[in-house]
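Q: Here's a chain of 331 amino acids. Please give me its 3D structure as tokens.
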Amino acid sequence: MSWLRRLSRDRSSKNEQDFPMPLRPTSFADQQSPPYKDTQYASTYNSQDRLRPNTAGQSDPNYQNALPIQRPPEGSKNATAHNTPPSTMTSAPDPLTRAFNEAVRPYLDKIERLQAEIEEKNLDIQQLEDERADMHAWIDKRGLRADVPPSIAAAMNSDSTSAQTLAHHLDRKMTILNHDLHRLQDSLSSHLPTSTFTTTLATLLPAIESLSLLPHGPPLAFELLIKLGGNLNSHGGEEGYNNDGDVASRAEFYSRLDETMVDVVRRRLERGGDEEQAWYVGKDVKRLEKTGGFLRSKIGLQTYFPRSLDVMRYEVKRGEVGVNGRHGGSP
């Protein structure tokens, strides 16, 4: 009996442990589970808060800043459209635009080729201009401007100082010719004909005429013509002055000088305002008259720039002793 009583007691205690303990009534707040704390990623807005509705934290600035930015997946079709502003989006050209581009492409290529050719030609032109400048400098250094061909002379005379340079070269050449003629006369035992001197010195007349056409050239040409006649007067000696052939050659040479001088005087009167200093015509008239009187008594030269003196005397009679004003008609 004792073992039966013990068995029933063990069963009853086991049954009592199987039944749950009675629970006391709780409120709704107690039934909610404690908030989940995300300790792995510390943040003001944790992962548990994403599951809660936004009721009380909408006005909180920390809450607004903690909201994640919704971005489309990288592999989605709208990713480019979402990141690219609408103003920078370009659509594929329509068939009409594509056809226009294909039509004008040959002309654009031709324009590019022509521009490249123009650049090459400009380089060639610059190289030729540099070579021409070097050639002109070489000519001027050796005093050969008076002997260059007309085509080269036209290019060299485009400079503003071309008249002064050409006059300097002509004066130098005239001096060289004069010395050569004197040396030739001294090397001969007989008299050298005056025609040899006149023919040699007359080679300078075309260059002097060209000088008178340049800006500021007439005054320089005027002085060179007077000097050219003086170089002829230094040759001949007593034997040449008394020879009829030499006298005729001398008179012919002075006649050519006078023809050239008339044109030079008229150009100088027309361009009187271009001269740096006033030209006193009466002063040069007296100078020529004095030289002509000396040659008349010395070598028997009857005419010395007669037509040129008539033009200059006409200007003096008009009362214009300077070339500052306007000069009108001439005989």
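Q: Can you summarize the key feature?
A: Residues 27 and 249 are 152 Å apart (CA to CA).
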